[in-house]
Predict the 3D structure of the following.
Amino acid sequence: MILKALKENGDMTISYYENGMLQTFTGRYHDLNLFDQTLCLVNKEKKRMTIHIAGIQQIH
C-alpha cells in the first residue's frame, strides 16, 4: 500500500497516529528508511516530517 502510493508524483496527504492523536501532513516523498521504518516527506515550505510507517492510517 505505502510503496504503491510513493510511486505517484506530486503531493500526498498522509493520516497517521502520533502520541495517540490522529494527525495529517501533506507533502512530497523525500526518503524511506526501512531500517528505522520511517517515511520522510517535505512540504512546499521545505518543512520535513518524519513519520513512523506503523502509525500510518491512510494515504490520500
User: Anything to note?
Assistant: Residues 11 and 28 are 5 Å apart (CA to CA).
